[in-house]
Amino acid sequence: MDIGIERIGFYTPNSYIDIVELAKARGQEPDKFTIGIGQDKQAVPAIYEDAVTMAAESADQILDDSNKKDIGLVIVGTESSVDESKASALFLMDLLDLPENVRAFEIKEACYGATAGLQMAYNFVSTNPGKKALVVASDIARYGINTPGEVTQGAGSVAMLISSTPQILKLENKSAYMSRNVGDFWRPTFSKTAFARGKFSNQIYIEFFETLWKRYQKEFDVTADDFKAMLYHIPYTKMGTKAMRTLEGKISDEKYAQLQAEYKYSIQYGREVGNLYTGSLYLGLLSYLINSAVTPGDELLLFSYGSGAVGELYSAKVCENFKQYIHVKNVQSLLNNRKKISISEYESIFSQSVRDGESVDPSVVTGEFYLSEIKENERLYKTKQ
């Protein structure tokens, strides 16, 4: 039985800042951010947007009455949870009008959460072949104004419908994974922004990739030549480049050059949006499927990493007529029609939030779903009419 991604949807906020303007405002050389980090734009969420609203936006693109009734599992992978008890997935039940006879919950493990959800969805569908699973990666990456991590912020969501009738990507149930208690990145419950040991985190990321690639080759008897492309978790696009460099000199120069060329297609959208945490790998996948010359039957290798740390390397095969099932024009329109805001506007938005007892004017909402108010410390959401 084939199992994999039947549909994929993407959302990012309507506003963004220019990374060159951010560099100048911070007294930095623009090349440090655009080349050294590898970013061009950064999404800026509105005060009425959070992990729930963005998850609803991306999932709504791929759901309709015919597939909603078949959903038996809903998982949101996020490290931007809005509640320490109630799962983001439960808010989606009403916003998306999903059936009650589902398991709905949230997974937290830094940027790995959505991959954990994807693998869990695979197992669910394998034992319930008539059912589908909705897996959503939704995050707001926040490090703070004028901090070292500011340039690697971002926001967005990627939703994937997993079923026994994959039309975009077939998961091959081949993976290598590892977990280790590492203090490279964390966000205590009292803090809205993350703490990170940047260089150390890069080191662990690369170490995990090298270790898993060796294990994967040995367990499944493969080489780099078996894959059309290698896709990476890319909180900033230069990070994947660093992992790929570990292959240099270990595979043929021709294959290394080809993998480098393919990688550039996977980072096009990441450069435009910024860090999606759990969604970064899957935005890279979407970018690659839309922008590259990949063909049905091509094998892809995907590297997922979540600080703390968990890593997984797994393979997938591109389905026949896959582009027919991706809303290419919608993705391009979403990115092209965003509004650029000034650095001062971004700083003002960053410091704002909806407070208890306050409500949001629906006329300012640009999307379909929004945080409408906080009442007695309860977050209430609405669909824009």
Automatic annotation (TrEMBL):
Q: Which residues bind (3S)-3-hydroxy-3-methylglutaryl-CoA?
A: 143, 242, 275
Q: What UniProt keywords are attached to this protein's entry?
A: Transferase
**GO BP of this protein:** acetyl-CoA metabolic process
Tell whether Transferase is among the UniProt keywords.
Answer: yes
Catalytic residue list: 79, 111, 233
Instruction: Family membership, please give it.
Output: Belongs to the thiolase-like superfamily. HMG-CoA synthase family.
Q: Which residues form the Hydroxymethylglutaryl-coenzyme A synthase N-terminal domain?
A: 2-163
What InterPro entries does the database record attribute to this sequence? HMG_CoA_synt_C_dom, HMG_CoA_synth_N, HMG_CoA_synthase_prok, Thiolase-like
Q: The Hydroxymethylglutaryl-coenzyme A synthase C-terminal domain covers which part of the protein? A: 261-352
Q: What organism does the record attribute this protein to?
A: Companilactobacillus ginsenosidimutans
* Name of the protein described by the UniProt record: Hydroxymethylglutaryl-CoA synthase
Recorded GO MF terms = hydroxymethylglutaryl-CoA synthase activity
Pfam families, per database record: HMG_CoA_synt_C, HMG_CoA_synt_N
